[in-house]
Specification:
CATH superfamily: 2-enoyl-CoA Hydratase, Chain A, domain 1
Number of domains: 1
Shape: globular
Number of helices: 6
Helix content: 10-25%
Mean pLDDT: 91
Largest sheet: 6 strands, mixed
CATH class: Alpha Beta
Radius of gyration: 20 Å
Distance between the termini: 24 Å
Oligomer: single chain
Low-confidence stretches: none
């Protein structure tokens, strides 16, 4: 979708890509079916269409996006940052691996903004955090959910070798996500560069509302080269939104 914005004598065209989740047809991919559905494939087509329409900027709308495929979030980040680290993952043994984008060149190098709200979680937070850490674009909206952990389900009947289902399953946290700047997305989520008013208190919804949520912690930053900085623009932008 293209939104036309009038700014005095200027008319700007903003391409809006609304992404409800980070999806990928895993079954089709494993079977080697060409043309399987995925976030990165669909967004790549949309970016090309927006470039053909000569938009001035792109807004990635991740409101209410609860996450999904980590690999898709990493690949999508590379569409805007190019090749480089996107997220750090620390496992239960304390070992840290850095997940990087394979994109040699960005698909879009123009102005970029990411719109999030309190329901933007997990992979959405990884994408928004990476865009923010690289200084690649502005993050707008509400503080995100704050889910920076990875869970898996363990079948207790299988472990006990029980022939009849009677023990159920247990959910275990097996890893934690960290931004490339070293901070985790856990608990605090992603704080927008420009915060919009909200009727919901952050403590009423999100990871911080859980009694046993893991705390916010920090690890060493990954090695990455920021695209630039937008800090000089923030006072102007925050001032203009306050007056609106």
């Amino acid at each position: 979708m293209v939104q036309t914005i009038t700014d005095g004598a200027l008319i700007r065209k903003i391409g809006v890509i609304t992404l409800p989740s980070f999806y990928e047809d895993f079954a089709a991919k494993q079977k080697g079916i060409s043309g399987y559905k995925s976030t990165s494939r669909d967004v790549a087509v949309l970016i090309k269409e927006l470039k053909d329409k000569k938009v001035d900027g792109i807004l990635m709308d991740l409101r209410n996006n609860g996450g999904g495929s980590l690999s898709e979030a990493i690949e999508l980040t590379g569409f805007f940052t190019g090749k480089g680290p996107v997220v750090q993952v620390r496992d239960a043994k304390g070992q840290i691996r850095v997940e990087s984008s394979p994109q040699s060149q960005p698909a879009w190098e123009g102005p970029l903004a990411v719109l999030i709200n309190r329901n933007s979680a997990s992979a959405s937070e990884i994408f928004a955090a990476a865009i923010q850490d690289y200084g690649r674009g502005l993050v707008l909206g509400e503080p995100s959910f704050g889910k920076g952990t990875v869970q898996t389900m363990i079948n207790l009947d299988r472990i006990a070798k029980s022939e009849k289902p009677q023990l159920g399953e247990i959910k275990l946290t097996i890893a934690q996500f960290f931004r490339i700047n070293g901070g985790t997305t856990q608990l605090r989520g992603v704080t927008p560069d420009v915060t919009f008013p909200t009727v919901m208190e952050t403590g009423e919804h999100g990871e911080s509302s859980y009694d046993n949520a893991l705390p916010w912690v920090q690890i060493p930053a990954a090695k990455f080269s920021p695209n630039g900085t937008l800090q000089d623009l923030l006072p102007i932008l925050v001032g203009s939104t306050s007056c609106a």
